[in-house]
Amino acid sequence: MSVKPPKAVEDADGRVIHEGEIKRWVGIGWVVERKACKDDYYQIPEVIND
Predict the structure, then answer these.
(1) Average pLDDT score, the chain
(2) Environment class of residue 23 by beta-carbon count within 10 Å: exposed (0-12), middle (13-18) or buried (19+)?
(3) Cα–Cα distance for residue pair 24/41, rounded to 1 Å
(4) Region 25-42: what's the mean pLDDT?
(5) Is the overall model pTM greater than 0.85, yes or no?
(6) 16 φ, ψ to 5°?
(7) Where does the chain show beta strands of DSSP type E?
(8) What is the mean pLDDT of residues 11-36?
(9) CA torsion angle for 37, 3, 31, 23 (degrees, to 10)?
């Protein structure tokens, strides 16, 4: 089943920052692109585990 992601994730081209890494949604799961740098935190939403 597919779920529409939040607008912030759509605006970031399907990417999020999770545990210091940039991850992209590829339709069947998340793929790690690279480690996030300081500037990425201004452009890509961060997922925080509570």
Answers:
(1) 88
(2) buried
(3) 15
(4) 92
(5) no
(6) -140, 160
(7) 15-18, 21-25, 30-35, 46-47
(8) 91
(9) 10
